[in-house]
Amino acid sequence: MTSFSKELSFRWSDLDPNFHVRHSAYYDFGAQHRIEILEGLGLTMKVLQAQHFGPILFREECIFRKEIKLSDKIIMRTKISKMKPDASRWSIVHEFLNEEDKLCAIITVDGAWMDTKLRKIAHPTPEIAVEAISLFPKSEDFVSL
């Protein structure tokens, strides 16, 4: 597997007054896809709550290359681009590609795992998180931190 992929379906509420996808909708699609991927890898909300940890973001950035309109067919591909060996810190990239496989936007997030009881970075990283995130496909320019 080279990436987790998902075809996006846009709603009227995802548009801005210029009739293209509003900037904040991209972040919503990225966040939803990350949670769906984690759920699929066994990191369900129940597991996260029971083990008192969850993902947190330090940075989220989107670079917009080509506008996306309501009827456009867009595939979002998600990969991991950076990670510490203990999976304590990581970066995930979401690419938004149109039917011609042209890059419309790219979101990069930098994150870690938080202990939800202590409200601090989880140390050590919960083993189930290490196992799940290590299953993420790596980007072509993957960097081990």
Question: Would you kindly provide a written description of the structure presented here, covering whatever features stand out?
Answer:
The protein is α+β, with helices and mostly antiparallel strands and 145 residues long. It has 3 helices and 7 strands; from the N terminus they run E-H-H-E-E-E-E-E-H-E. It has a single domain (5-144), classed as Hotdog Thioesterase (Thiol Ester Dehydrase, Chain A, Roll), CATH 3.10.129.10. The longest helix has 18 residues, at 23-40. The two termini are 22 Å apart. The model has no long low-confidence stretch (mean pLDDT 96).
Terminal-residue CA separation = 22 Å
Count of discrete structural domains: 1
Counted by DSSP, the helix tally is 3
Approximately how much beta-strand content do the residues carry? 35-45%
CATH architecture term: Roll
Classification by helices and strands? alpha+beta
Mean of residue pLDDT values: 96
Oligomer designation: single chain
State the shape: globular
State the low-pLDDT regions, or none.
none
User: Helix content range of the residues, please?
Assistant: 10-25%
Radius of gyration: 16 Å
Number of strands: 7
List the helices and strands in order.
EHHEEEEEHE
CATH topology, anyone?
A: Thiol Ester Dehydrase, Chain A
- CATH superfamily, called what? Hotdog Thioesterase
Profile the largest sheet. 7 strands, mixed
Query: What is the CATH top level name?
Result: Alpha Beta
Descriptive terms for the model:
seven-stranded mixed beta sheet; 22% helix; alpha+beta; single chain
